[in-house]
Each structure stands twice: as structure tokens, then as C-alpha cells.
From TrEMBL:
Residues 74-368 form the DNA methylase N-4/N-6 domain. Keywords: Methyltransferase, S-adenosyl-L-methionine, Transferase. It is an enzyme of class 2 (transferase). It catalyses: a 2'-deoxyadenosine in DNA + S-adenosyl-L-methionine = an N(6)-methyl-2'-deoxyadenosine in DNA + S-adenosyl-L-homocysteine + H(+). It comes from the Bacteria. It holds the Pfam family N6_N4_Mtase. Its EC number is 2.1.1.72. It comes from Marinomonas phaeophyticola. The keyword S-adenosyl-L-methionine applies. Belongs to the N(4)/N(6)-methyltransferase family. The keyword Signal does not apply. This is site-specific DNA-methyltransferase (adenine-specific).
Length: 544
């Protein structure tokens, strides 16, 4: 399932060439689920604004709907997509199943790439079943040079003795950046790390640890790092016999002057060491790609967190521990940054982001969006959730979120098979939807009835289901003036042959009829992601 194209490895699969023509829907708020807590005794808004969004929707349509307002604004994307273990496709053969999974991931990753800021990063948890294919796909979308690392997370701490074969106790976390503007943060120093720095000689500069003075190179390879060192305590001359020193003569001289050389508690060590003071090292630790469960938690810990919140965990097969998400957000974000999770699951990403002072967007289609995620985030906001990382970050509550759902499709077929404007759309919804379709910002004026939004400071849009007569168009044109332009989207119009240079008049729905696929609410694991057989042909050199 790969091919060499233009000297690059290209992943191919059945249906890859069939790209969805997504409708950019508008959002509607379900205020009965939105929630805010700004009481004085709980810390005002927790250091955040109210831009947190919980969206109940097919996540591909939701990402398309977010595109206009959030392109280039998301600092960190954390997703835990379906692992494609086979259970989702019990009626299909392996090849078909694999192709469907790849298509689902490709369509979403393309939009996620657009949403990321230039200094942003994407973190995907996955297992070995698809991780290698997923990496090649991400190389195509993000560019191979923007691959950051492949982290191994120890999700289990034990293996059953009854297991036959080689047990898998680790998952992968693929990390990609949007560009070379991404700079990761250091991790806080652990107690064990700080404990390595001691002060056995009461040095006034504080705790330190000894660093080996020997290089790995032989004296023959690095003769410039070979010289005699005298132990001032014993007078012994220390020569390079097997290894060179790490430092040149001038640096060693400075070490001596600064009293950095350590010869052991009794001063009689046969080789020197140099003092590295805690006050001089970076304020943090370099992240690496081995994350043991002791550091970031495991699946059993995650299930216990879910049980503590909901009383049971059977609705979530593979929850992630809060400490795992905390580690990711610590490395990839700072307070106030925007975090996105389009496979929200039990809502762990939003809960952790809230506690860490990050803004967040989560997308989830299932009913547990209302039955589990909403109650969970409410507990976080009210300060009632003291599990997970709450005590570690001293979380006391605060903040809020808006609960959104997608509007239905703007166009639907009538009883005669003609595309018409959906009857569920009122005037406000129609104006907002047309603004999104035509690339305008929806911002209706309180004083100008024809001003529903803008694309520039002088270019505006007016949306109406009415029919406009010549006199109406003339009056609007005069009000708009010579220095501004207006796009009018209406049902019909009569200009009586007159031209209005500052007006562009278009009919709806004809204006948008061919822009996208209409009235499709499901882009999940279904057979419609596959191309028709005649639309997919392998080249002779393609690897089957």
C-alpha cells in the first residue's frame, strides 16, 4: 500500500482519491448545557475567558465548521482516535477495514493541519496496529521534516501469565509540528532530579552534583584534550592514558580558579570531577520519548479516575489518565493557549486543560457528550473534581464553556427533488450560514438593515429570502455609497436593466448549490468513504 512518487514515499489505499465536499455549517448553542461559574469564592474565571467549546457533532463536519474562525489559532491538538483493532468492522475484510480507517484519519488530519498555529503541534495516541501507516500519512500532510518524535507510553504495568505470545504494554504518541516555529517547553524538575544535587562541602554556591571529567575519545583521537592535571591534595600527577579529558586546558584552568574541581570527600580520588550547580542548570528537564507509567499514569489509573467521577467506567474502553494529558500540555502549551481534541471520549483533555489554565475545544458525537462530559466539566468548574491532577495543580475551580451543536444542512430537497433552503433556518441562521459560505464575517449592524457581515472594511453582505425590486436596489445602492461594495444574496430581483456598480446581486440557493455536498450528517466509519471501483485504478508501478 505504498508507492514512490517524486522521490517520496506515498501511502495509497482504496478510496484515497475520493475527497469529501464538506458543507461549512454554522453552530447553534444549546444553552441548557452551557455552564459558567464566576463566583468570587471560586477564583472568578479560573484565569480563562469563556471561549471553551464543547461541540456535539460528527467531528469531520465540526472541524470544517471551525475552519473559518480558528484556522491557524490552535496551539495544541491532542487526539485519541479509534485504534482500528478490527472490532469496528466485523463485517468487512481486513483490506477494506484498513482503507476505511485511513480515509477517516486523512480527512480529519487535513483539517487539523489547517487549524494548527504555525508554532503549534499535534499529538496522536495510537497502538502498533496502525502507527506506522499513520506516520507515513502524517509525513505526507505535515511534511516529513515536521515529525518531532514517536513517544512510547507504558499504558500497562503488568501482563497476565496466561497471555500467549508477546504482550503489548505500550502505546505510541506520534508528535508533529506545524513548522519550525514550534518550541517545546521543559518539564518541571522532579524531586528525584533535585535530590541528585547535594552540598557535602558546604559550598556557598549551593547544591551541586559532580560531572565526569573524562571524554569517551581516546588520547590519539583528541590530543588537544590531553594534558597533566595535578591533584592539589595529594600532589599526584594525573595523566591521560586511556581517555581524553572533556575540557581543554583553558577551561580546566577556569575550573581550578573557580574552585569547581572535586576530588572526592577525602580529596584523594584518582580522577577529578567538575561541580555543576543547581542554580546554573536550566529551570526544567529536557523531555524524552520514553514515558513510564510511574511518570504519566496507566490505563488502570485512568479507569479509576472515571469510576470516581461517574461511579462506573464501562462506557469508556480506553480512557487516558489525566497525568498523560498534563505531560503533553506542559510540553506543548502555555497558560491561555488553545487546545483542541476532536475525539473527546470521556472529556479528559478538556478537564486537564481547564485545570491547567488553557482554553479548549472538544468534539464528540455520542450521547455521552451530554450524559458524561458535561457533568464532568461542570464538576471541574465547580471545584468538586479533586481527582486526577487537581491536587498537583491546586485546582479550586472556575471558568465555563459553551455547548454547541451543528445546524442542520442549509439546503434540503423538497418533495419534487429540488434543492431549497431548509425550513428550520430563520433569517438570522440564514445570514450567518451565507456569511460562512461566502467567506464573510457574520456581524449584523444595528443601524444598517443591509449590513449582515463583512469581508473587508469596505465590502459587506446582505442576505434575504425576499425578492428585491428596482426601487429597493436603488435605495440600497445609494445607502452603500461609492466607497463601499455589497454582495446581495436574495431569492429573486428585478433591476429593470439598470446597473449598480457597488452591488453584486446573486440568487440563492443557486449561488451555493455546487459548493459542497448537502444534507449529509454522517462522515464516520461507513462504506461511502470508498470510491467506486471504476474510479480507482492502480498504475503499473503501484505496489499492491
Amino acid at each position: 500500500m505504498n508507492n514512490i512518487k517524486n522521490n517520496k514515499l506515498e501511502l495509497i489505499w482504496i478510496g484515497k482519491d475520493k475527497l469529501p465536499r464538506l458543507e461549512p455549517r454554522i453552530f447553534l448553542e444549546s444553552k441548557e448545557y452551557s455552564y459558567f461559574n464566576v463566583s468570587e469564592d471560586i477564583g472568578q474565571d479560573g484565569g480563562q475567558d469563556f471561549s471553551n467549546l464543547l461541540i456535539k457533532s460528527d467531528n469531520l463536519l465540526a472541524l470544517k465548521a471551525l475552519e473559518q474562525d480558528f484556522t491557524g489559532k490552535v496551539k495544541c491538538i491532542v487526539i485519541d482516535p479509534p485504534y482500528n483493532t478490527g472490532s469496528a468492522f466485523s463485517h468487512y475484510d481486513d483490506g477494506l477495514e484498513h482503507s476505511m480507517w485511513l480515509t477517516l484519519m486523512r480527512d480529519r488530519l487535513v483539517l487539523l493541519y489547517q487549524l494548527l498555529s504555525d508554532d503549534g503541534s499535534l499529538w496522536i495516541t495510537i497502538d502498533d496496529n496502525e502507527s506506522h501507516y499513520l506516520k507515513v500519512m502524517c509525513d505526507e500532510i505535515f511534511g516529513r521534516g515536521n515529525f518531532v518524535t514517536d513517544i512510547t507510553w507504558q499504558r500497562k504495568y503488568s501482563v497476565s501469565n496466561n497471555f500467549k505470545g508477546i504482550a503489548s504494554i505500550c502505546d505510541r504518541i506520534l508528535v508533529y509540528r506545524k513548522s519550525d516555529k514550534f518550541v517545546n517547553n521543559l518539564l518541571p524538575r522532579t524531586e528525584d532530579s533535585v535530590a541528585r544535587y547535594k552540598n557535602p562541602d558546604n559550598d556557598p554556591r549551593g547544591p551541586w552534583k559532580s560531572v565526569d571529567y573524562l571524554n569517551q575519545a581516546t588520547p590519539e583521537k583528541r590530543p588537544n584534550l590531553c594534558y597533566d592535571i595535578i591533584n592539589p591534595n595529594t600532589g599526584e600527577v594525573i595523566k591521560n592514558t586511556k581517555k581524553a579529558w572533556k575540557y581543554d586546558r583553558e577551561t580546566h584552568r577556569k575550573h581550578v580558579e573557580e574552585k569547581r574541581i572535586w576530588w572526592g570527600v577525602n580529596g584523594t580520588n584518582t580522577t577529578p570531577a567538575v561541580k555543576l550547580f543547581l542554580s546554573e542548570v536550566r529551570d526544567g528537564m529536557t523531555p524524552h520519548n520514553w514515558w513510564p507509567h510511574e511518570d504519566v499514569g496507566h490505563t488502570d489509573e485512568a479507569k479509576k479516575e472515571i469510576i470516581q467521577l461517574f461511579g462506573r467506567q464501562d462506557v469508556f474502553d480506553t480512557p487516558k489518565p489525566e497525568r498523560l494529558i498534563q505531560r503533553i500540555l506542559t510540553i506543548a502549551t502555555n497558560p491561555g493557549d488553545l487546545v483542541l481534541d476532536s475525539f473527546a471520549g470521556s472529556g479528559t483533555t478538556g478537564a486537564v486543560a481547564q485545570k491547567m489554565g488553557r482554553r479548549w475545544i472538544m468534539v464528540e458525537l455520542g450521547d455521552h457528550c451530554e450524559t458524561h462530559i458535561v457533568p464532568r466539566i461542570k464538576k471541574v468548574i465547580d471545584g468538586e473534581d479533586q481527582g486526577g491532577i487537581s491536587k498537583a495543580v491546586n485546582w479550586q475551580g472556575g471558568g465555563g464553556f459553551r455547548y454547541l451543536r451543528l445546524a442542520p444542512s442549509l439546503l434540503q430537497k423538497d418533495e419534487w427533488g429540488n434543492w431549497v433552503i431548509n425550513k428550520e433556518y430563520n433569517a438570522e441562521m440564514l445570514s450567518a450560514a451565507m456569511c460562512k459560505h461566502m467567506g464573510f464575517t457574520y456581524a449584523p449592524s444595528e443601524t444598517q438593515f443591509w449590513n449582515h457581515g463583512y469581508s473587508t472594511e469596505t465590502d459587506f453582505i446582505y442576505v434575504t429570502t425576499g425578492s428585491l425590486a428596482y426601487d429597493q436596489l436603488k435605495r440600497i445602492s445609494e445607502d452603500v455609497g461609492e466607497d463601499r461594495t455589497l454582495l446581495i444574496c436574495c431569492k429573486a430581483f428585478m433591476s429593470e436593466g439598470a446597473e449598480f456598480p457597488n452591488l453584486t446581486i446573486k440568487k440563492i440557493p443557486q449561488l451555493i448549490l455546487n459548493k459542497c455536498e448537502w444534507d449529509n450528517d454522517d462522515y464516520s466509519f461507513t462504506l461511502n468513504v470508498l470510491a467506486e471501483p471504476e474510479e480507482y485504478e492502480l498504475d503499473d508501478e503501484d505496489d499492491q
